[in-house]
């Protein structure tokens, strides 16, 4: 089954956990939660604005984790935290990962910790029972790609473009070739993210990989005032789009299509 991992900035609104529940109800397979940071180097304008709004509300990591712990019994899908190294290493990766686990978070994405500097964080995450997800980009060389694939846990995050997150008119042409390269060296699911802005993008990306991460287009809706109920509809449309990719790719031909061997 193709996977849908929508993103939500923690603390973006007072009722932000209602969006989590809406995502889950709409068919999300897991949810990526952004822990807001004042200098998000990999994030484009929309996610930066979402982080700024959360921080202006006085949101803290402590508050976000407390909110998650409060709804833990109502969340049945995995939660992945996405943040930056400064926040992880401020109190030490052991403490950080343990606190994530205690709040019900089962995965962690830290895009500014490269694979060759991830030993300490990887050990801390494993000890806490948290999957450390690593990222690969279109320019990642083969040997490094193989190392990322071998050391990632949960899934491999395929960054479809060179640059920051953000909404785009078209799915990057580099998305499918990158997914194929990663799938050639791992059995982990490959989730394509960055620039998945429309349902048709989600279908195409899910066809190439094992699913999609959708962030900026959803956060734009929240910033514009969309309610949890309205986001439920948006995520449901993405769910249908991802499922369409499943219907289009018969199981016995899935590997050939991802590899590009379509004849």
From TrEMBL:
Instruction: Read off the Pfam families from this record.
Output: Trp_syntA
Q: Which residues form the active site?
A: 32, 43
Question: Which reaction equation describes what this protein catalyses?
Answer: (1S,2R)-1-C-(indol-3-yl)glycerol 3-phosphate + L-serine = D-glyceraldehyde 3-phosphate + L-tryptophan + H2O
| A GO molecular-function descriptor | tryptophan synthase activity
| EC annotation from Swiss-Prot or TrEMBL | 4.2.1.20
Under the heading PROSITE patterns, the entry gives:
TRP_SYNTHASE_ALPHA
The alphabetical list of record keywords is: Amino-acid biosynthesis, Aromatic amino acid biosynthesis, Lyase, Tryptophan biosynthesis
Q: In which pathway does it act?
A: Amino-acid biosynthesis; L-tryptophan biosynthesis; L-tryptophan from chorismate: step 5/5
The answer to whether UniProt assigns keyword Glycoprotein to this entry is no
Q: Which family does it belong to?
A: Belongs to the TrpA family.
What is the protein's quaternary organization? Tetramer of two alpha and two beta chains.
From the Swiss-Prot or TrEMBL record, give the protein name: Tryptophan synthase alpha chain
Tell me the organism. Actinoplanes hulinensis
Q: What is the lineage of its organism?
A: Bacteria, Bacillati, Actinomycetota, Actinomycetes, Micromonosporales
């Amino acid at each position: 089954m193709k996977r849908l991992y929508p993103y939500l900035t923690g603390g973006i609104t007072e009722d932000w956990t209602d969006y989590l529940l809406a995502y889950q109800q709409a068919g999300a397979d897991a949810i990526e939660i952004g822990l807001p940071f004042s200098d998000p180097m990999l994030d484009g304008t929309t996610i930066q604005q979402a982080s700024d709004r959360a921080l202006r509300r006085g949101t803290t990591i402590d508050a976000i984790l407390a909110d998650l712990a409060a709804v833990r019994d109502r969340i049945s899908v995995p939660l992945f935290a996405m943040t930056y190294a400064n926040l992880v290493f401020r109190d030490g990766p052991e403490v950080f990962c343990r606190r994530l686990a205690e709040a019900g978070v089962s995965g962690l994405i830290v895009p500014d910790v490269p694979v060759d500097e991830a030993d300490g964080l990887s050990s801390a995450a494993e000890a806490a029972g948290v999957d450390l997800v690593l990222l690969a980009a279109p320019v990642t060389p083969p040997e490094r790609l193989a190392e990322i694939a071998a050391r990632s846990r949960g899934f491999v995050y395929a960054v479809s473009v060179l640059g920051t997150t953000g909404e785009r008119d078209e799915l990057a042409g580099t998305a499918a070739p990158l997914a194929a390269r990663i799938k050639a060296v791992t059995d982990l699911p490959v989730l394509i993210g960055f620039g998945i802005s429309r349902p048709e993008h989600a279908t195409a990306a899910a066809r190439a990989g094992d699913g999609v991460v959708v962030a900026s287009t959803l956060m734009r809706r929240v910033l514009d005032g969309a309610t949890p109920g309205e986001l439920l509809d948006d995520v449901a449309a993405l769910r249908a789009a991802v499922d369409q990719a499943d219907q289009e790719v018969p199981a016995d031909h899935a590997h050939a299509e991802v590899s590009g061997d379509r004849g």
